[in-house]
Design brief:
Blueprint: H1 3-16, H2 36-40, E1 48-50, H3 53-62, E2 65-71, H4 76-86, H5 89-98, E3 99-105, H6 110-123, E4 133-137, E5 143-147, H7 152-168, H8 170-188, H9 201-213, H10 231-243, H11 247-261, E6 276-277, E7 285-286, E8 289-290, H12 291-308, H13 311-328, E9 336-339, E10 342-343, E11 346-347, E12 353-354, H14 355-362, H15 368-375, E13 387-388, H16 396-403, H17 407-425, E14 433-438, H18 439-456, H19 459-476, E15 484-488, E16 491-495, H20 498-515, H21 519-534, H22 568-583, H23 586-603, H24 612-622, E17 626-631, H25 635-643, E18 650-655, E19 674-679, E20 682-683, H26 690-697
Parallel strand pairs: 1-3, 2-3, 17-18
Antiparallel strand pairs: 2-4, 4-5, 6-7, 8-9, 9-14, 10-11, 12-13, 14-15, 15-16, 17-19, 19-20
Length: about 700
């Protein structure tokens, strides 16, 4: 009898004799967890465990295959697999009999996700890796099969095949696991300490040329059928273009930003960006909204607005910040993780419209025909099920010109339509909220609020930044400088990872640069020392993602690639560099420079698209950053005015007094507020006017 027939025979027996196959219950071991993602599975008939010693010991004792199933609360395909497979009693009986089933929230335990995602890349070198990430492991937790979403029948067939093979000869699985581990080591050991090389401006030019070749120069973004915002990439293009007078780079950043904000990716009614677009023209989003995307995009649009004062940037920037305040901010002034893509078991239903719905709400308005034209809405719809995504087909200026109307007047009329639709949308069932607070993502949001404040001078943004910084200080930072990862229901939990530390340090550093309150630096310094002590690798160069105080996993990974978020090692390098400048700490500066140059020299010609923040930092190796000191009674006022300009390669320090920082010594002049523009601690003659200081910088 062949294996396939055996599989179907076993499935028939399991389905007909459920009493023999393990418990089916109204709840499982996830019921006491706080993670919204885990709680989504707490009533599955699958006997899920959280990642803990109980589950791992059970697998070893019973010599069972472990399933590690990883996802997150707003993951659409996670919901699909949960509904199709994990809620099905026949599937659950099979899983409960043959496997020890572990559910992991990747946002709570990114270290576990990183390890098994690397295993996926090692096992499926040209295959899909995403979420839900399903990993079959030996009883010791060594992965031997890794994949993503499977249909119900494919999933059951896989379990039958793998468990039958395991029961016949466990050594087969051990051999598969060993091969994956060898491939994982090659991935993890990809960065060696290269021979020292001098900084080379041509390296940046070659890297940008490679990046440009992978970008869509018509619609912006990368050349891909799925388009992610990737704010780190456009930040690099903007900074590189301005630093090296490359107009192509600057325009690519602006082109992408314009296309993203005038698209279905951007919520035209409430503000805020979806996670990615499902087409090359940004028309239809994957509707989930993530804190990390929106925080980074707030910083990007702040920089773009500073660069050219495009009023549309300011409008979208303010709308997005207000959206974060209204929909993401909790009662303690921290920010939730994400919103689901689905509502009423349908993707995008909350955000999309039938033609009849819009006609009922808007047809009495004289501007409705122009609204139809702007968004190209129709009875057939521009998406699934006859529904319409609000994707502007042309610019408001074009519509106004064709209609022979004033653009600002037309904008007011379109906003009237938006408000009516938004009020109607609020009456719908809202997508599910993942209400946990993630430390690193809130660090990104803290920096975003600071950036938005410098771009717009809106005092409320800085007030909210202060409240968020206070939350992080009192709820997430321990007395020894270590961090919690998660905050939910009034309780902090989980050990912080490298991105948590680096993001919060950078957020506190920005708070210092705006307030000139050294307490923010004093709070950041112990966190930096904790990174150096507990995350450093054996060579004293890079950092591991988790600390040496955490319980060991099957591998300890270094996160290097910049993708939807900046890699934790790049963030750590930036934190070391900036804090080294502010504290005049040569050891920190030297290590940061070695990290940056060592990385860039290994990737600049092969894969620069995945290392754009490293490239951004590398510009500092070529062109030393400005150290801008503002000292005197008017320091705060001049500081905000100066930072309203796009000056990316700089740190700011100062205050009404000299404070305690070495770079401020002997810079206070009685009765005057002076601006010192310095490089490598060598300062030009001080000036008392922002315009004069900008000339010194330029």
């Amino acid at each position: 009898m062949n294996r396939l027939l055996l599989a179907f025979t076993a499935l028939f027996i399991i389905s007909c004799k459920g009493g023999m196959t393990g418990k089916l219950s109204n709840e499982n071991h996830l019921i006491n967890e706080s993670s919204p993602y885990l709680l989504q599975h707490a009533h599955n008939p699958v006997d899920w465990y959280p990642w803990d010693d109980v589950a791992l010991d059970k697998a070893k004792t019973e010599r069972k295959i472990i399933l590690v199933s990883i996802g997150y609360a707003s993951c659409h395909w996670c919901h699909v697999m949960e509904k199709e497979s994990f809620s099905d009693t026949a599937v659950a009986r099979l899983m409960n009999q043959e496997l020890v089933n572990i559910k992991v929230d990747r946002e709570e335990r990114p270290d576990i996700d990183n390890v098994y995602m690397t295993a996926c890349q090692a096992a499926n070198q040209n295959g899909a890796c995403g979420w839900p990430l399903n990993v079959l492991c030996t009883p010791e937790g060594r992965p031997f099969w890794v994949g993503t979403y499977l249909s119900k029948q494919d999933w059951m067939n896989l379990i039958h095949s793998m468990t039958s093979s395991y029961n016949e000869d466990p050594n087969n699985m051990e051999k598969m696991a060993s091969q994956i581990e060898r491939n994982m080591r090659q991935i993890n050991d990809g960065f060696v300490i290269a021979p020292e090389k001098t900084a080379d401006a041509q390296l940046l030019e070659k890297a940008f040329s490679t990046i440009l070749g992978q970008c869509d120069q018509i619609h912006g973004g990368r050349n891909s059928d799925l388009k992610f915002p990737l704010p780190v990439m456009w930040n690099f293009c903007l900074q590189y273009g301005l630093s090296y007078k490359n107009n192509y780079a600057v325009e690519l950043a602006h082109l992408t930003a314009r296309k993203m904000m005038n698209s279905g990716l951007y919520d035209q009614l409430s503000g805020g960006f979806a996670r990615y677009a499902t087409d090359a023209q940004w028309k239809v989003p994957h509707f989930e909204k993530m804190l990390y995307d929106n925080a980074q995009l707030i910083s990007l649009y702040s920089a773009l607005y500073k660069h050219n004062k495009n009023e549309d940037y300011r409008i979208k920037l303010n709308q997005t910040v207000q959206f974060m305040f209204s929909d993401f901010k909790n009662s303690e002034s921290a920010y939730y993780s994400s919103y689901d893509a689905d509502s009423d078991h349908e993707e995008g239903k909350y955000y999309t419209w039938t033609y009849s719905e819009m006609k009922t709400l808007l047809s009495s308005l004289p501007q409705f025909p122009l609204f139809e034209k702007l968004y190209q809405i129709s009875e057939a719809g521009n998406w699934e099920h006859g529904r319409n995504v609000l994707h502007p087909a042309m610019s408001l200026g074009q519509i106004a010109k064709e209609a022979k109307q004033d653009e600002q007047s037309l904008r007011t009329k379109m906003n009237e339509c938006h408000k009516i639709l938004l009020e109607a949308r609020k009456k719908r069932n809202k997508p599910a909220l993942d209400d946990k607070v993630i430390c690193s993502w809130n660090g990104l949001m803290l920096k975003a609020l600071c950036d938005a404040y410098t771009a717009t001078a809106d005092e409320n943004y800085f007030s909210q930044a202060k409240l968020l910084a206070q939350f992080l200080k009192t709820k997430m930072i321990k007395p020894d400088g270590s961090l919690f990862r998660i905050y939910k229901n009034g309780k902090a939990s989980g050990s912080g990872f490298l991105d948590d530390y680096a993001s919060v340090i950078l957020g506190f550093q920005r708070m210092y640069e705006l307030s000139f309150d050294e307490q923010y630096l004093n709070d950041a310094k112990p966190m930096l020392n904790f990174i150096l002590q507990h995350f450093s690798d054996e060579q004293g160069l890079y950092f591991y993602y988790n600390s040496d105080l955490d319980k060991e996993l099957i591998a300890r990974k270094k996160e290097m690639e910049d993708q939807a978020m900046i890699s934790s090692n790049a963030l750590a390098a930036e934190a070391l560099y900036n804090m080294g400048l502010l504290y005049d700490q040569r050891e920190w500066l030297d290590r940061a420079k070695r990290m940056i140059e060592n990385t860039v020299h290994q990737v600049s010609e092969t894969a620069p698209v995945f290392y754009t923040h490293w490239l951004n930092l590398y510009i500092r190796s070529v062109k030393a950053p400005y150290e801008i000191a503002i000292v005197g009674q008017e320091a705060q006022k001049l500081n905000l005015k100066l930072q309203s300009n796009f000056i990316p390669n700089a740190i700011f320090l100062g205050g009404e007094t000299e404070g305690s920082l070495e770079l401020l010594k002997e810079k206070l002049q009685d009765g005057q507020t002076m601006i010192y523009v310095c490089r490598n601690k060598i300062c030009k003659l001080p000036v008392d006017d922002v315009e004069k200081s900008l000339k010194l910088i330029n």
